[in-house]
Automatic annotation (TrEMBL):
PANTHER family: HTH-TYPE TRANSCRIPTIONAL REGULATOR RUTR, TRANSCRIPTIONAL REGULATOR TETR FAMILY. It holds the Pfam family TetR_C_7. This is TetR/AcrR family transcriptional regulator. Keywords: DNA-binding. The lineage of its organism: Bacteria, Pseudomonadati, Pseudomonadota, Gammaproteobacteria, Pseudomonadales. Residues 9-69 form the HTH tetR-type domain. Transmembrane segments: none annotated. InterPro entries: DNA-bd_HTH_TetR-type_CS, Homeodomain-like_sf, HTH-type_TetR-like_transc_reg, HTH_TetR, Tet_transcr_reg_TetR-rel_C_sf, TetR_C_Proteobacteria. It comes from Pseudomonas sessilinigenes. Residues 32-51 bind DNA. It comes from the Bacteria.
Length: 202
């Protein structure tokens, strides 16, 4: 890697970390690109060179958080492994993300920001939805392999996300409840697996 490229990467990382700190401390609307630039120790022009808008920067942060936590558990459908075992790994990765305080803090920021702007809400949901494609692709592959009954892939994916988030996301976001304990995570996963597979497994 050349020195200019390395410097550019370092600046980008500094901008993202500064933005995380500012969004967590002040929320979306009260965070400015000027403040992010000052906290990162770079010019505002440098910030805009990397990120055309505050929305783009915020979306990048959410994507990076998701990727850093779930990358090790990207599950590709395997016809020689039991469905329950594969799906359990997917849900464990999901719960690791939902237990991460950085992700929860920034999700609160995103939801608060979205309430005041329906268009922003649609954009953020669409961006986050891209990161849930792994489960959708897995369900589609299992269906094609004849391991699942006829189903609407998108609805089935939403159902299993809902089973998890009703315990491990919305109570923490809206009611300030602590992340699930390891024992409770296991119980939630096993229950979700039972409900999903009992209904859909061929």
């Amino acid at each position: 890697m050349t020195a200019p490229k390395r410097l550019t990467d370092l600046k980008r990382k500094a901008i993202i970390q500064a933005a995380i700190n500012e969004f967590r401390a002040n929320g979306f609307d009260l965070t400015s690109m000027d403040k992010i630039a000052a906290t990162a120790g770079v010019s505002k022009r440098t910030v805009y060179n990397h990120f055309p808008s505050k929305e783009e920067l915020f979306a990048e942060i959410l994507h990076k958080l998701w990727a850093s936590i779930s990358a090790q558990a990207e599950i590709t459908y395997r016809s020689n492994v039991p469905l329950r075992e594969q799906l359990e790994q997917l849900l464990q990765a999901k719960l690791r993300l939902l237990a991460d305080e950085n992700f929860l803090d920034l999700a609160r920021v995103a939801i608060a920001a979205a309430i005041h702007s329906p268009q922003r809400a649609q954009d953020m949901v669409a961006r986050l939805g891209e990161r849930e494609e792994g489960l959708t692709a897995w369900i589609r592959a299992a269906l094609a392999d004849g391991q699942l009954k006829s189903l609407d892939v998108e609805i089935a994916a939403q159902q299993i996300h809902g089973l998890i988030k009703s315990f491990a996301f919305w109570p923490q976001i809206s009611l300030g409840q602590p992340p699930l304990t390891a024992d409770m995570q296991t119980r939630v996963i096993e229950s979700a697996l039972d409900m999903f597979l009992n209904h859909y497994q061929a």
